[in-house]
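INFO worker-7 received task bundle
INFO bundle size: 2
INFO processing item 0
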Amino acid sequence: MLQTVNLSLSSPPLTQECLRNSKVYLFLLPYSTIASNCNREKIVGCVVAQRITTAMAIAPNELVNTNQGSGYSSEDDYDGGNIGRNHLVAVDSGLFCHPEPLPTPMGIPRLFVPCTYRRQGIASALLNAAAATFIRGCPIDPKLGQVAFTQPTGDGKAVMLKWGGDSMRIYEE
């Protein structure tokens, strides 16, 4: 299943170490076959959640829209605790992040819902389940910056920002 997800997302396979530190959440729908008269389930969504330690905060649109480039600039160093315009790191899907690593307990290296099942709340339901159960007895709140994504596609970026708002983070896989 993960091979199919990786192929669909054009992502490299997750390492064995990553998989050992991960939980996989699946969204299942009833699926019956007429010929065999048996009830089965069909996987229509998958989220892989892993334990991470740090991630980068996504820069607000106001800062990104005034940013004329990415990377570090010696003339745009910290100024009274404010980050200079060019002091951002560019990541996939047109996102820019602050380079400072922030404590973040949960990372999402893979999120996939086939296009025929999108816009039905499946990704949000999977992410909610992961946030509620990933660390036993300790729900994780994406709105507090406790969840990060890696390699967001354009659609993944939209889901990430809709689900977690402005507090979402990005981490390197």
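INFO item 0 finished
INFO processing item 1
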Amino acid sequence: MRHDIDRVTALRRSEEQRVAGLQKFAQQSSWLTTVADKENKADAIRKANMKARQEKEDEERRLLAEKNENSKRDLAAKELETSLLLEMKLQRDKQQAKELEIQRICSQSEELKDLERQLKIAYVNKERAAQHQEAMLMSKIESDRVARLEWQMEKDRILDLKQQEDRKREQRQKLASQKEGG
């Protein structure tokens, strides 16, 4: 019996050891699963962080490239504006120099001075001729007006004489008819 008890006890101990081993194995498996899950989550977080960092770097590179492009465009626009301003200043300076040269030549040339005097005389003569023609036109208009007025007055005088003559004739006829009747 004792032997049976030892044997049962040994079997029980063996069974307890096996159960304890299985429990230990289950705990280790659970722990390894948890560790693996945590590592997977950590990997996923690392990948997400890496992707976010990569996207941020890409965005920063894009913004930097855009900023550089804008800077280049602004610089090109400023250079163009500067060159246009310089070109305009050169053109203005050339024009002023040309005008000064023309003035200098005009002021030194006797022929041009004579021509200017002749031009002034021609303008004065032209103005006088225009004034003379205007005066002649005004004189003609006035003489036409006077002639029309005289013609109208003559016409009125003739009409008045005719009316006086008609009245005289009527009076004579009245007198004659009164003499015959009376």
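INFO item 1 finished
INFO post-check item 1: The chain has a mean pLDDT of 89.
INFO post-check item 1: The helical segments are 2-108, 110-181.
INFO worker-7 idle
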